[in-house]
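Narrative of activities, Objective 1.

The group set out to show that a structural description can be obtained from nothing but a protein's sequence at a throughput compatible with the screening campaign. Below is one input-output pair from the validation batch, recorded exactly as produced.
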Amino acid sequence: MAKKKIYKMPPPAENEVSEPAIAYGEMNILKQELIDDIKQLNDMIALKRLVKYIRRQKKAVEKETIGKEEILAGIEASLIELELIRAGKKKAKDINEFLDELQD
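Output recorded for this entry:
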């Protein structure tokens, strides 16, 4: 009878975490620290100001994000412009002009 070969298994990877998981972990730590700080705050005026500030920040972030409709409208406008250029009804922008627009 043949003797069984014993294969060594690779050592387990230590702390293999993807970058997004690390970022979320850091975010959760910051959130928990904020919650702990708020729990220790005993000034009603300061709490009201904090709530007002957080709500303003939340609205500002919501305004900065672009919606699905806006993205689709931009793609549609680009495709229409591309068709006009291909049909010779519109002149394409010079590459340098295009790059200048991207920098602004």
